[in-house]
Design brief:
The chain is of the alpha+beta class. Helices cover about 30% and strands about 30% of the residues. The strands form 7 sheets. Strands 12, 15, 20, 21, 24 and 25 form a 6-stranded antiparallel sheet that branches. It has a 5-stranded parallel sheet with strand order 3-2-1-4-5, with helices on both faces.
């Protein structure tokens, strides 16, 4: 089958990398893709908000199967539109994607169906003073979340009232996240270790891929502002078999069941962000798609046919025999543009890409090819994923950083401690 992958990030490059190994993959198109995906198939520059143009392009390219990577086209209803036109699509409906596009909706479902998560209140932007009073009467740290989509950056952990007031003012009044801040969810702070679990589901049955752990903060030691993610590793040893069982029975199954009872079934990749607290796993967030950069660490440790797995879901019946963990570990380290997640410059040439060898993979994100040169175009530029087939996490970390040192571009920045939390569990 010929497959179209919607998106331009490292997640989409990793999906294409895995799909290309499937015996059923006859060709790949990326809409729009990046400077690395063109090595796997055809990049097509396109405006994804023009659904009719996307449809016409897919028809012209004789596409058999569509996989949508990022949350924005899912929430915008591109998958719904293409399904109505007769395409087979891996992506939840826009209505089901409300679990990510409206954090308040997700919290309401969790509360109704008894799914463990942080206590919370939600406030409209017209309730700024009431929200301040709520924060003033509570304890610190406190978590403030823009209700809508904010590219992974709409979460602030405030350690005191001054920080909380500033963050709330930015979200509600200054609109730093646009309409995403029309509602703000204020949550209690949960202590523990975070992990990310991808549940591939047809709405009823599901298959959990090996758990990963992301590194959201920009700086070493988990300092500085949140980003879209500066690196990840998989499997995450903190997610023990006992924790996995509890996540399945206390979180995933009641959540999927609750959505079915709400006549809003979810079929696709359910991203389950959990906090492993002293009282067990609790939900930090649900997302409606594969995570980035976790995907770049999860997919390389799988054996089998990922394309076949996702196709089975899109056809309505999950086939859990399609993929399995092969026993290896992977570490993915993001190289970003200096200044990210704030202001940064782009258009710099990247050198050393061809020097990465062995069980190391370069997944492109914010890149493009121009005049036979690969240039930076985004905040998160690329990621180096290192796979150790023997399961040695320390070896994978060392290999990833050794490879990353071979790559350079002006103002390159990366964390030096990706995977540090896993070492203590080894």
């Amino acid at each position: 089958m010929k497959v179209a992958i919607i998106g331009s990030g490292g997640r989409e490059h990793a999906l294409g990398y895995s799909f290309s190994k499937s015996p059923d993959c006859s060709g790949l198109c990326f809409l729009p893709g990046n400077g690395g995906t063109h090595q796997l198939g055809q990049n097509i520059e396109i405006n994804l908000t023009d659904h009719n143009l996307v449809y016409t392009t897919l028809i012209n390219e004789k596409i058999d199967f569509v996989v949508i990577g990022p949350e924005i086209p899912i929430v915008d209803g591109l998958g719904d539109f293409l399904r109505e036109k007769g395409f087979i699509v891996f992506a939840p409906t826009a209505e089901a994607a409300r679990i990510e596009s409206e954090k308040s909706y997700s919290k309401q479902i969790m509360k109704k169906y008894g799914i463990p998560t942080a206590d919370y209140r939600e406030f409209k932007d017209t309730e700024f003073e009431s929200a301040l009073d709520y924060i003033r009467e509570g304890s610190f740290p406190v978590v403030l979340k823009a209700d809508g989509l904010a590219a992974g950056k709409g979460v602030v952990i405030a350690t005191n009232f001054s920080e909380a007031e500033s963050a709330l003012r930015d979200m509600m009044l200054n609109k730093v996240f646009g309409d995403a801040g029309l509602t703000v969810v204020i949550e209690e702070f949960m202590s523990g270790e975070e992990a990310s679990i991808f549940a591939i589901t047809d709405g009823t049955d599901y298959l959990c891929l090996p758990a990963a752990q992301d590194h959201k903060r920009i700086g070493d030691g988990d300092t500085g502002p949140n980003t879209g993610g500066m690196g990840a590793y998989c499997p995450a040893p903190v997610v023990t078999p006992e924790i996995t069982q509890r996540v399945n029975t206390e979180i995933i199954e009641p959540f999927l069941g609750g959505l079915r009872q709400e006549s809003n079934p979810f079929a696709g990749c359910l991203y389950v962000g959990i906090m492993i607290t002293n009282s067990g796993p609790k939900v930090v967030e649900f997302n409606c798609r594969f995570g980035d950069p976790e995907t770049q660490a999860v997919l390389p440790v799988l054996e089998g046919d990922l394309l076949g797995l996702l196709y089975s879901v899109a056809k309505g019946k999950l086939d859990p025999t399609k993929v399995w963990h092969n026993g290896s570990v992977a570490v993915s380290v993001v190289a970003a543009s200096g200044g990210y997640p704030g202001t940064f410059k782009k258009g710099f040439e990247i050198s050393g890409l061809n020097s990465v060898e062995g069980d190391n993979i370069v997944f492109h994100a914010g890149t493009k090819v121009s005049d036979n040169k690969t240039l930076t175009t985004g905040g998160r530029v690329l990621a180096i994923t290192s796979v150790d087939k023997s399961g040695n996490l320390s070896a994978a970390i060392s290999s990833a950083y050794d490879s990353l040192k071979k790559i350079s571009f002006t103002d390159i920045y990366y964390r030096n401690d990706i995977g540090h939390r896993a070492i203590k569990h080894s």
